[in-house]
């Protein structure tokens, strides 16, 4: 595919990739944790990182706003100020003890795409040369680390905010509503973050794969076909706390043992269902003393499936397993669903543009780019409510993510920036 961008030569792409890596390092230093990376929604780190992102957006000639949900947005107008916008972006919040690329690389790569594509509007202003404006969105709370509910920022943009989320609490008992106010946001204005479908051309996101497929194939980039559906639960198992020495086994109703069996059942049941995966990432025993049989256990359950149906089938099977396990042990169990998102299928036109973008980075005669479905969750899961979604995956060495060793190579970031920029040009050509 011949395109104007390829003519600009590799130096700008190499510089762009270098800047992305350096900025990922810079953002990694903005953390609530000493010796690790943790940046959660509506925290002082959120505010600091938004200020930095806004500065980088303004440097590119973009106008900036922090929207009503705390997402940082930059916009580069097209020739006509009424033109719809193509959204490019990802998220800047992290899991606890995170890597430095999950989400972050996608936001920074989007900025580099704007840098490559912008043209002078006049002596001191820049504009998009395309029939649409370019917007970079840095979403907040894709991960759900602070309030348990993921995709808060993108839900506000998609206009699917639920008022019952205001009562969600963090580990300190602060409600989402209180955290909004402390951060300087007005909960009553949350609706202002919502975007209308007619003002959006689509949403494109670059993200590390968070799995080993591209690494195993020896390829840099893939087109994403769909994003897995997800459900998250907080489960409580209730038994009876008693003396650890004095209570014979036949008198025990040990909640931790019930929860442990439940966690093993999650592995067994999910392994038996194609493309469904389940994880118990949190498990706590109460009252939590060495010499007390646990009277209560709390555990999380994260379920993902390529399709909603298979995910829901697994949840039904698990509910039955939990009934049997807890019944046998004299325990009670309950579950509160804290997050649910359907599978989202990437738009064929955006997949086609990304495919063309990837092909432009390959030697001629190379094999077709990989097409993968995303087992990880992404902001596109809810942005799909208001705009077509397309995603580009970057090779993630050893497939390790949500871990400090998470990596991506500068060379692959360069390929990714080129592919994304070419995909944007392809979309403009298609319109
Ligand atoms: C986000 O990274 C998720 O998939 O949980
Ligand atoms: Mn993540
Ligand atoms: Mn992510």
Describe the structure.
By secondary structure, the protein is of the alpha+beta class. Helix 2 crosses helix 12 (410-430) and helix 4 (104-117) packs across helix 12. Strands 1, 2, 3, 6, 7, 8, 16, 17 and 18 form a nine-stranded mixed sheet that branches. Strands 9, 11, 12, 14 and 15 form a five-stranded antiparallel sheet that branches. The mean pLDDT is 96. The chain starts with a helix and ends with a helix. The chain folds into two domains: 4-228 and 343-430, Zn peptidases (Aminopeptidase), CATH 3.40.630; 229-341, Alpha-Beta Plaits (2-Layer Sandwich), CATH 3.30.70.360. The chain contains twelve helices and 18 strands. The site of one manganese (II) ion has 4 residues, from loops.
CATH topology of the largest domain: Aminopeptidase
- Broad CATH class of the largest domain: Alpha Beta
Helix and strand sequence: HHHEEEHEEEHHEHEEEHEEEEHEEHEHEH
The mean pLDDT is 96
Q: What is the rounded Rg?
A: 23 Å
């Amino acid at each position: 595919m011949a395109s104007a961008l390829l003519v600009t030569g590799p130096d700008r792409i190499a510089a762009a990739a270098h800047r992305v890596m350096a900025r990922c390092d810079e953002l990694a230093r903005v953390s609530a944790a000493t010796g690790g990376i943790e940046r959660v929604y509506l925290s002082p780190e959120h505010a600091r990182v938004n200020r930095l992102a806004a500065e980088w957006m303004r440097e590119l000639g973009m106008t900036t706003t922090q929207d009503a949900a705390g997402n940082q947005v930059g916009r580069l107008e097209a020739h006509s100020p009424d033109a719809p916008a193509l959204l490019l972006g990802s998220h800047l919040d992290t899991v606890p003890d995170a890597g430095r690329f999950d989400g972050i690389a996608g936001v920074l790569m989007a900025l580099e795409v704007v840098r490559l594509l912008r043209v002078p509007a006049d002596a001191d202003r820049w504009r998009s040369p395309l029939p649409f404006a370019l917007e970079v969105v840095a979403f907040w709370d894709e991960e759900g680390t602070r309030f348990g509910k993921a995709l808060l920022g993108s839900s506000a943009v998609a206009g699917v905010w639920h008022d019952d989320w205001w009562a969600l609490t963090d580990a300190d008992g602060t409600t989402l509503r209180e955290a909004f106010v402390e951060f300087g946001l007005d909960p009553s204005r949350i609706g202002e973050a919502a975007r209308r479908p007619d003002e959006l051309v689509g949403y494109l996101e670059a993200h590390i794969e968070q799995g080993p497929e591209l690494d195993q194939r020896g390829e840099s980039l893939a087109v994403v076909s769909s994003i897995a559906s997800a459900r998250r639960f907080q489960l409580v198992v209730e038994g009876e706390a008693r003396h650890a020495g004095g209570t014979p086994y036949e008198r025990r109703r040990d909640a931790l043992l019930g929860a442990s069996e439940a966690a093993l059942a999650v592995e067994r049941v999910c392994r038996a269902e194609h493309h469904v995966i389940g994880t118990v990432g949190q498990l706590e025993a109460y009252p939590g003393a060495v010499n007390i049989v646990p009277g209560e256990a709390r555990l999380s359950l994260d379920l993902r499936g390529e399709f909603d149906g298979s995910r829901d089938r697994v949840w039904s099977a698990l509910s039955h397993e939990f009934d049997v396990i807890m019944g046998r042990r004299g325990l009670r169990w309950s579950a509160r669903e804290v997050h649910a998102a359907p599978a989202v299928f990437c738009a064929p036109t955006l997949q086609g543009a990304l495919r063309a973008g990837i092909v432009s980075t390959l030697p001629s005669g190379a094999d077709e780019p990989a097409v993968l479905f995303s087992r990880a969750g992404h902001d596109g899961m809810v942005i799909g409510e208001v705009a077509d979604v397309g995603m580009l995956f970057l090779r993630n060495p050893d497939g390790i993510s949500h871990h400090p060793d998470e990596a991506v190579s500068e060379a692959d970031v360069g390929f990714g920036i080129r592919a994304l920029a070419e995909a944007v040009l392809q979309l403009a050509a298609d319109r």
